[in-house]
Design brief:
With about 650 residues, this protein is of the alpha+beta class. About 50% of the residues lie in helices and about 10% in strands. It is an enzyme of class 2 (transferase).
């Protein structure tokens, strides 16, 4: 229904979110500050012991740092009470004494009809369940027994049977006084096109009730007992209750199980879901006979931030997974994605569970593939990239897919991952100069190479690299953390960069994690959190390092603009230098073969990129070598790089002799 302008804003302002949430949680007295409306508790949506669920009463929003549930008072009531939006509004309005505007007569009539349709559907559920116990259902019961369903499972899933009769359900409902319009409106029968009596939609089928998130029966799925039937599975037609593209099988129970910490699994059909749940994987759902729609995908993400798609290991299952990638890419958000667990060829989850049990499926789930890897697999599997044109075509196809991602941070991470995978595919194959004519490898146009150990010069460069490359990065991490400790209001702004920062020091990692978790606190309160976790001396030792202590925004804290510039600059330098480190590591691997111009160019280019990325401000010249173009790389890093580059060139010269 349409509500008057301003009604929802007034409702939210009158409702105390902490009071609404407080009915479902126990507040953590140590972390919460009721006077500021800053409340913490274990999350009501997933099982946990720590208090990671945060309520900001002043802003009227909640957020869980564990499962990423978020919303306002209306959202909280909807999710915890399994009610519709309007029902949640009515619940809150009653609590604060606000009258809800009355629906217009047509809207009220429509709501009343939906209630009547739901009641008719419940009568049909009971009728089909009773039919499963009759003599006409012997073959159906035998089939279900072969599928491993116990009497308890049949009861739990409310499985029934529609006898092979034209008017079995119709006559039953008419005897109960149900109007024709409601039977047709529920999708349970169809009018005859030849002037005869209406006939049942489902005949000669095992019946699976489909319920919505509120637990109402809204449709049926029927499996044909006759193997020659054109439709092996048949769903109810779309009705006022049932929208196939907006419904999921077992959604209500799956949401509850996911809230208790179980992974959300997406299967293809009813029996897969039933098998998964019976095997202990309670958070399982399935779309209803079609590819997953955008509405269903959003439903999945409201239940869990990273559902696992458990698709059949056949061609159709793989095609469905690949289509889903294109649907999901534009909708990705930080922490919101998909993983894919592909079943063995020719098997679905039900087959796998019956053949090998739950441990086998759990191993597949543990190794579920992130979406970026499946995207890469789709574009490269079974193809040969032995020409510049083919490589360029791959680059173009991947660029077009990555462009679909709207979130700039995710788009950047996808680009980096694809770049890494591309390098692994196309990295130069080292070749031995002394070769036997005609000894080409496998039709790829690459010389066969005999593995060789590193030369003495290469070994010495490795020792130089190990000696001091980490010291500068350690200092940069300390500057970033100490700067943000003085201005925690900026932590949220740099959340993505901080989360991606690979801390060399375990203490740095702990401090970073605490900052991300408690970014709402004032500087003094945040320091107290860190003192409590690591001790006061750890933080003071980090802050007292000379290069850290002289940093302007740390020496004279409080200037948020200066802090922002410092943190952005240092994060950029870290990323650039670690990009150089990655190239050096790859180069060290390549030393097992013969150095080539490509390897030398790659290292030189990496150094130039690091130099350009780090150009800013003035560093302490006692610790930093200032290159000709004004960039800053530590002397240890520059020495290690030069030594390694020299070793490569020397090794190439040795082998040319």
């Amino acid at each position: 229904m349409s509500l008057p302008p301003g009604f929802l804003d007034e409702l939210r302002s009158r409702s105390s979110l902490s009071q609404v949430v407080g009915r479902k949680v126990i507040w953590d007295a140590r972390k919460s500050n009721q006077g500021k409306g800053d409340m913490w508790a274990p999350c009501p949506f997933h099982q946990e012991k720590s208090a990671s669920f945060h309520v900001d009463d002043r802003k009227g929003f909640y957020y869980c740092f564990g499962c990423h549930a978020k919303g306002d008072a209306i959202t909280f009531v909807r999710e915890t009470e399994n009610v519709s939006f309007m029902e949640a509004v009515e619940i809150l309005a009653r609590e604060v004494g606000m009258p809800v505007p009355k629906q217009d007569p047509r809207a009220q009539q429509k709501a009343d009809k939906r209630t009547q349709l739901a009641e008719v559907m419940e009568q049909a559920v009971q009728f089909f369940r009773l039919q499963l116990q009759t003599g006409a259902a012997v073959a159906a019961r035998e089939y279900l027994a072969r599928r491993g369903l116990s009497a308890q499972a049949l009861e739990r899933w409310e499985i029934g049977f529609a006898a092979d009769q034209w008017q079995g359900l119709w006559d039953h409902l008419k005897a109960k006084g149900v109007e024709d319009e409601l039977i047709f409106g529920a999708g349970l029968a169809k009018p005859s096109t030849k002037g005869g009596r209406p006939y049942d939609t489902f005949r000669g089928r095992i019946m699976y009730p489909i319920r919505d998130a509120r637990g109402r029966a809204i449709a049926f799925g029927g499996r044909a007992m006759d193997p020659s039937d054109n439709a092996k599975y048949l769903n109810s037609p779309e009705t006022e209750l049932f929208d196939k593209g907006r419904s999921l099988y077992n959604v209500k129970e799956a949401r509850t199980a996911a809230g208790r910490g179980q992974p959300l699994l997406v299967a293809e059909g009813y029996m897969d879901v039933i098998a998964l749940v019976e095997a202990g994987f309670g958070a399982a759902v399935a779309p209803l006979g079609t590819a997953i729609t955008e509405s269903q995908l959003q439903m999945l993400w409201r239940i869990s931030p990273e559902p696992i798609i458990t698709l059949d290991g056949d061609t159709a299952g793989q095609r469905a997974a690949l289509r889903l990638i294109d649907l999901a890419l534009p909708l990705l958000e930080a922490g919101q994605s998909l993983r894919f667990a592909m079943m063995p060829e020719g098997q679905d989850p039900d087959d796998l569970l019956r053949a090998h049990g739950a441990p086998a499926l759990q191993r597949l789930l543990d190794g579920a593939m992130p979406m970026v890897r499946l995207l890469w697999q789709r574009e490269t599997e079974g193809r040969v990239f032995d020409s510049p044109e083919r490589k360029a075509a791959l680059d173009k196809a991947l660029r077009e897919k990555i462009k679909l991602i709207k979130d700039p941070s995710i788009r950047s991470h996808y680009g980096q991952e694809i770049k890494d995978l591309r390098y692994q595919l196309f990295r130069p194959q080292q070749a031995k100069k002394a070769f036997t004519p005609g000894a080409r490898s496998g039709g790829q146009g690459r010389w066969n190479a005999a593995p060789q150990g590193p030369s003495p010069s290469a070994k010495s460069s490795m020792l130089v690299t190990a000696a001091g490359l980490g010291a500068t990065e350690h200092l940069r991490e300390a500057v970033i953390l100490c700067a943000l400790l003085e201005c925690p209001a900026l932590v949220e702004e740099f959340e993505t960069g901080l989360a991606a920062m690979q801390c060399q020091d375990s203490h740095h990692g702990r401090i970073r994690d605490l900052m991300l978790r408690h970014m709402h606190l004032e500087p003094a309160a945040l320091r107290e959190k860190i003192y409590g976790a690591l001790g006061e001396q750890t933080l003071e030792n980090m802050r007292s390092q000379r290069h850290v202590a002289v940093t302007p925004c740390i020496r004279t804290p409080g200037n948020s603009d200066m802090t922002r510039m410092t943190v952005a600059e240092e994060l950029g330098k870290l990323e650039a230098v670690r990009g150089l480190d990655a190239e050096i590591a790859d180069a060290m691997e390549d030393l097992t073969g013969v150095a080539d111009e490509g390897l030398t160019w790659r290292l030189s280019e990496a150094a130039r990129n690091a130099d350009r990325a780090q150009r800013s401000g003035q560093e302490d010249t006692a610790e930093y070598d200032i290159a000709e173009n004004g960039a800053h790389i530590s002397r240890d890093e520059r020495s290690a790089f030069d030594a390694l580059l020299g070793a490569i060139r020397g090794k190439g010269a040795e082998e040319d002799k």
